[in-house]
What we know:
Layout: H1 7-10, E1 11-14, H2 20-30, E2 36-39, H3 41-57, E3 61-68, H4 72-83, E4 89-93, H5 96-109, E5 114-118, H6 126-131, H7 138-152, E6 156-158, H8 164-171, E7 176-179, H9 198-203, E8 208-211, H10 213-216, H11 221-235
Parallel strand pairs: 1-2, 1-8, 2-3, 3-4, 4-5, 5-6, 6-7, 7-8
Helix pairs in contact: 4-5, 5-7, 7-8
This protein binds ligand LLZGTKA7.
The ligand O=c1ccn([C@@H]2O[C@H](COP(=O)(O)O)[C@@H](O)[C@H]2O)c(=O)[nH]1 binds next to strand 8.
Amino acid sequence: MPEPISPRDRLIVALDMASTDEAERLVDRIGDAASFYKIGYRLGYAGGLALAERLVRGGHKVFLDLKLHDIGNTVEEGVRSLAGIGATFLTVHAYPQTMRAAAAGRDKAGKGLKILGVTVLTSYDDADAREAGYALPVADLVAARAAAAAAIGIDGLVCSAAEAAQVRAVVGPDRLIVTPGIRPAGAEIGDQKRVVTPAEAMRSGVDHVVVGRPITGAADPRDVARRIVDEMAAAL
Length: 236
Ligand SMILES: O=c1ccn([C@@H]2O[C@H](COP(=O)(O)O)[C@@H](O)[C@H]2O)c(=O)[nH]1
């Protein structure tokens, strides 16, 4: 069985900022209300990988949300390079060839980096999946990709918490389920489509929630982070 995760360590704050200075100021403001930070495209292409190393050295956990997807050799070598940063999680798109290459890179690097397969982006609904050429509804596509990820030996999945129970049934207790598209009640939804509250996510068996704008855009980010952690603690 997996190790228990404290409510605070379940929260991953998405540092979708334009500069590392801005991101570091936010991390300082949040203080001990959070321990886990996600770096995606915006910050990753603006010095975010060096910041990731600094955050790891400072005792934080880091999720590199770079959603790799390329030919197998490029993915494998990319994962091997990124493993040196000391991050906890790295995303790849949940295509079988990509996941196999990422698992090989992870194993060759041997640094303890966990690979998460992005099933279907939380900004997609069934109509978006159809428009992208997929015949299956989102929930079925997520389940199929989760099954492939588990068979390949990927460490966890990114999906909406709306599909977490179904994914858990497919992948069992040992794979991680990490869910963006999290919105505290009353928060602006923005471009997300499959949205769930922090409490509902916990009740659905999610391991980690990813929260960006509701925290980064708040007047008091520390307070919002603490409220989210409290909401999750009460639901567990
Ligand atoms: O399916 C996915 C995969 C990744 N994300 C990322 O999570 C955060 C969510 O930010 P919010 O501001 O809380 O919407 C963002 O960095 C996305 O790139 C996702 O939303 N959905």
